[in-house]
Design brief:
Blueprint: E1 2-4, E2 6-8, E3 11-13, E4 20-25, E5 30-36, H1 40-58, H2 62-78, H3 80-91, H4 95-112, H5 115-118, E6 123-128, E7 131-139, E8 142-146, H6 154-165, E9 169-173, H7 180-191, E10 199-201, H8 206-214, E11 218-224, H9 227-239, E12 243-247, E13 252-256, H10 262-274, E14 284-290, H11 294-306, H12 326-341, E15 345-348, E16 367-370, H13 377-380, E17 387-393, H14 396-405, E18 408-409, E19 411-415, H15 419-428, E20 433-436, E21 452-453, E22 456-457, H16 464-470, E23 472-480
Parallel strand pairs: 1-5, 8-9, 8-11, 9-10, 11-12, 13-14, 13-19, 14-17, 16-17, 19-20
Antiparallel strand pairs: 2-3, 4-5, 6-7, 7-23, 12-22, 15-16, 18-21
């Protein structure tokens, strides 16, 4: 049975702490390992090592840092199958989805390979007589990332890749539910040539988190998780003078217009609503049927939900794996119970699913509700499971008001053939990421990921140029030089020194 420890200063670090968390295979319910929970001394050691290493790493030319990123990408590709299998065994998502999430993380690495260009500043000659002015972006120092269970590789890579490329050191506190792949990232980065101490992994719970986000040596905190925790992280870290990007929950709507291609709509809803068992902050959990399209949508959608292939993520025929834990399964099941109690029409009930050989796994089948109202808990709250709600609205404006009235503003999409309607929706919706006939509008790595309203606390989104701006400080220099002795000729082509 495996035991995951910490990764500090380029090697495994075994804590003297007597606190541990259990690691389970969600498909079988079997305990497959344990993870050490850091104590105060462990966290302090990681921060000190990160602080010491950062000074030299910040002085490393961006081109040299870029070459580490190029090598890191190469090694991720080499180990893709191994990483994906570990991810599936601890999280439960199907193998192809694990590979997909690693690929989206690797795209951030590809973006970071261009860091010499991304860090270029601006220059103005003769802002005054013989006075020049220029700006540059310099690293912050020690940065911390706290990542969720649903993307144990992709989301950390959104954080630490940009941070390290910008010249910072980084301490990752991954989810204790699936910590193996984050730990493996440390070994891969070391093999890629990253100096010891620049990347560290601290495992633990709230005790470790509170120590990390309040330590005076830590300059920034990145977080992805539920909104209550995101808000806590934001306020606590800000109170301790940290720069913070804290991404919270979501309730993502798909607006289905009467002119939409319903085959495309249903394909989009099935993949985006039930992929990864709905454990995505970009999952489509609400379909808003506009006008008379509701009955036609339900007719096409219901049999697709009923026929979802549920099973262990390692089975190549499976479309949806288990939930992450027994506790989360109970939570999702209770939401379905409440939906029935509150009067929504449960058209597909996945609560009674049983898989031979996997009776102890954390499985629930796809669930589909119709005639869901805004006052119902299944509409208001983030369920984070394979539960779809269909809400019916008479007009486009009613649907738009519904989207804008929700407390979350992470992602949304509209399916329509009408460009005017699509443009109006994209322009007027109060949502951070918008899709037009695209079910999961996650921006590519050279753009930035982040929601609005209570889905994001802080001024910066993740990766893209917002990632560069978040992990650096702007410095502007204005200079004037007296006339001096000119240096003699140099006949060798200039090279990086």
């Amino acid at each position: 049975m495996k035991k995951i420890n910490h990764f500090i200063n380029g090697k495994e670090y075994i804590s003297k702490s007597d606190r541990f968390g259990d690691i389970f295979n969600p498909a079988s319910g079997e305990k497959i390992g344990s993870v050490s929970f850091a104590n105060k001394d462990d966290v302090a050691l990681a921060i000190q090592n990160a602080s010491d290493a950062q000074k030299k790493w910040a002085a490393t030319p961006p081109l040299a840092r870029s070459r580490v990123m190029f090598k890191f990408k190469e090694l991720i590709l080499r180990d893709m199958d191994k990483l994906a299998l570990e991810l599936t065994n601890e999280h439960g998502k199907i193998l192809s989805d694990s590979v997909g999430s690693l690929t989206r993380g690797m795209e951030v690495v590809e973006f970071a390979c261009g860091i010499p260009h991304l860090l270029k500043g601006e220059f103005s000659e003769n802002v005054g007589t013989e006075i020049d002015s220029w700006s540059t972006r310099q690293p912050l120092g020690v940065c911390v990332g706290i990542s969720p269970f649903n993307f144990p590789a992709m989301v950390p890579m959104w954080m630490f890749v940009m941070s390290i490329a910008c010249g910072n050191s980084f301490i990752l506190k991954p989810s204790e539910k699936d910590p193996t792949v984050p730990y493996m990232m440390g070994d891969i980065l070391k093999e890629a040539g990253l100096p010891d101490g620049v990347f560290n992994v601290i495992n633990g719970d709230k005790e470790a988190v509170d120590l990390l986000i309040t330590d005076p040596k830590v300059e920034s905190v990145s977080f992805v998780g539920s909104t209550p925790v995101a808000e806590y992280i934001y306020h606590t870290s800000s109170k301790h003078n940290k720069r913070v990007q804290s991404l919270g929950g979501a309730k993502n709507h798909m607006i289905v217009m009467p002119d939409a291609d319903l085959d495309q709509v249903v394909d989009g809803l099935i993949g985006a609503g039930y992929g990864s068992a709905g454990e995505r902050c970009m999952a489509l959990s609400v379909a808003v049927a506009v006008g008379d399209v509701g009955d036609k949508l339900i007719k096409k959608l219901t049999p697709r939900v009923q026929s979802l292939k549920v099973g262990p993520g390692t089975d190549p025929e499976v479309e949806m794996g288990p939930l992450i834990s027994k506790q989360h399964l109970d939570k999702v099941t209770s939401f379905v119970d409440r939906g029935v109690q509150e009067g929504a029409d449960l058209l597909v009930d996945g609560r009674s699913i049983s898989l031979q050989g996997y009776e102890n796994g954390y499985f629930i089948g796809g669930c589909l509700f119709d005639n869901v109202q805004e006052n119902m808990s299944i509409y208001k709250e983030e369920i984070f499971g394979p539960v779809m709600s269909v809400v019916r609205k008479p007009t486009f404006n009613d649907a738009l008001d519904l989207v804008n009235g929700h407390e979350f503003g992470n992602g949304t999409t509209i399916y329509t053939r009408d460009g005017d309607t699509a443009r109006a929706f994209a322009n007027q919706c109060k949502i951070g990421m918008v899709g037009v006939n695209v079910p999961i509008p996650v921006p590519m790595a050279f753009h930035s990921f982040g929601g609005w309203k209570r889905s994001l606390f802080g001024d910066h989104a993740m990766h893209g140029m917002d990632g560069v701006r978040f992990f650096t400080r702007l410095k502007t220099v204005t200079s004037r030089w007296p006339t001096g002795i000119r240096q003699g000729a140099e006949f060798t082509i200039p090279t990086m020194k």
